[in-house]
Amino acid sequence: MFARVLFPTDFSAYADAVLACLPDLKPAGLGEVILLSVIRSSDVPMPETVNRDSLEYWRWSLEEKLNIARMALEGKGLRAFTRVEYGNPAEQIVRVAEDERVALIVLGAQGATAAQELLIGCTAYEVIRRATVPVLLQKFEIVRELGHVKCRQVCESLFRRVLHPTDFSDCADAAFQVVKRLKAAGTQEVIVLHVQDDRVMKLRPPEQLAEFDRHDTERLQALCKKLSMFGLQAQPVLRHGIPFKEALKVADEMDVSLIALGSHGYSAVREMLAGSTLENVARLSRQAVVVVRSQRS
């Protein structure tokens, strides 16, 4: 399913934690990893002139680090290849993903505690918006010991129980097409969630709201029936509230290991910046998130 993945790294503690988790994707078919490091143009401006030597030093240094990571992955039974590129990180990540024909981009992010929101950099957001292949945001618990930052892995059994929030759109269906193929990756159960948005429904009469609930429950059950045809156990869940808050609540209550969401892609930038379900779930969830772009966007 995800036989070939792209892993961009800046060699931070978060990136190292992602690297250690990559072998856990083997049940999902992982066999090859493209290790990518991007030299930012702000770090080495105008490399074609006065800074050519500086650029070559950066490239050599990154290639050495990538080779160490490559050997670590090969020691875990994976094939690994390395690339060093120059330019805007998000643009280069998306370009290399297309060039290498990968099935998945894997990025690292800091997981949230009860009093701490998730940290996702601008590069990750841009990759999510632009990528034409699924993007997996791994999450980690941050441990600070003696002034050093360490990432505690939370990636074991990544596909065990999957939450799929849906609004029944083409966008959501893109993620559903990925979810229904996850049994081979070890998925035991899928929670299919739809949230009636109270901000929209509050002015509806009770009888109309009840009809919406009945109709959407039937649609949830139909999706669960499709999943059962792929050998997956599935449970429909209908909630009322603010969609991203209910999605996060269900993810915690039902102990899910992965949240699978659809994305409209780059055309939805303004919606995401305004606080969409996708952005908030990606930012606030304690669980890993896989974002799948709709090809119709």
- Based on DSSP secondary structure assignment, what is the total number of beta strands? 11
* Annotated CATH architecture of the largest domain: 3-Layer(aba) Sandwich
Overall form: elongated
**Total domain units:** 2
How far is it from the N-terminal to the C-terminal residue, by CA?
23 Å
Largest sheet: 11 strands, mixed
Helix content percent band: 25-40%
Mean pLDDT: 84
Structural class: alpha/beta
- Element-level helix/strand string: EHEHEHEHEEEHEHHEHEHHE
**How many helical elements?**
10
Relevant CATH superfamily of the largest domain = HUPs
Q: What's the CATH topology name of the largest domain?
A: Rossmann fold
Q: Give the percentage of residues in beta strands.
A: 25-35%
Unreliable segments (pLDDT under 50, ≥5 consecutive)?
111-119, 266-275
Structural account:
The protein has 297 residues and is an alpha/beta fold. It folds into two domains: 4-153, Rossmann fold (3-Layer(aba) Sandwich); 161-293, Rossmann fold (3-Layer(aba) Sandwich). 38% of the residues lie in helices and 27% in strands. It has ten helices and eleven strands. Strands 1, 2, 3, 4, 5, 6, 7, 8, 9, 10 and 11 form an eleven-stranded mixed β-sheet that branches. Strand 4 (104-110), helix 4 (122-130) and strand 5 (135-145) form a beta-alpha-beta unit. The longest helix is centred in the last third of the chain and has 24 residues, at 206-229. The protein is elongated and about 70 Å long. Residues 111-119 and 266-275 have low confidence and may be disordered.
